[in-house]
Amino acid sequence: VYTQMLNRRGGIECDLTVTRLADDRFLLITGTAFGQHDLSWLRLHMPEDGSVLVEDVTSAHACLGLWGPRARVILQRVSRDDLSNEGFPYMTARRITVGYVPVLALRVTYVGELGWELYCPMEYGQGLWDTLWEAGEPEGMVPAGYRALDSLRLEKGYRYWSADVTPDDTPFEAGLGFAVRLDKGEFIGREALVRQKAEGIRRKLCCLTLADPTAVVIGKEPIRLRGSDQVIGWVTSGGYGYTVSQSIAYGYLPVEHAAVGTPLEVEILGERIEAVVAREPLWDPQGERIRA
Q1: pTM above 0.90, yes or no
Q2: What CATH superfamily classification does 2-153 receive?
């Protein structure tokens, strides 16, 4: 599952996926830069009676992400396991073999395309890379760095912790209410979320598209209503979406100015660039590609 860990104000302290490995064992995957933060949060709030153990296994594993329309074709070339949509549905995990490499495969994505996160023991990392590279080259597979991932996740509307979601933002404000179950029992932040749901949110994380595709935000730029000098929000993150050919920005806006189509301006290096609140996600709004 994809979920968050909250503080008592309902703010998002951790943004991660949880994979159940056994009745009493779970694997938590978080952002590359946030492992120590999330580990500290877990240890601060775990029971003190010894009933829960937390172990950092980051250094024991290598991880490769394989995503794209041909991901299944490439992976199936080097694995005898059933990788069909029926045999390996979206948001599930299985242990498979890739070439000669033992792999824990998670069918999740941070780029909005069909694919898997592939985890193997660290000593198999080079072998996994070589196996996938040989299988993928004929299909046009290329290595992609973080900036490519960032562009793709913006198009898909995936949030980035420390920018789009922080300890000061709640799941309801961030558009992540689908990850909240208020009826499952007590959890840290539940009281604040119950209150916020009853009262309604006052601000909302919105997707903006800029009129000038060559104007690209980096974060913290002021957002104004078009023709007004009043700042109503700040850019949390943004970049150019190469698939949708648009300059994208995200930012929190008062709910009265968060409707799709609201005309805005984003100030970039002293220049006001026209923008508009867009319906998100910009790419594959029905999620058909990730569930293909």
Answers
A1: yes
A2: Probable tRNA modification gtpase trme; domain 1 (3.30.1360.120)
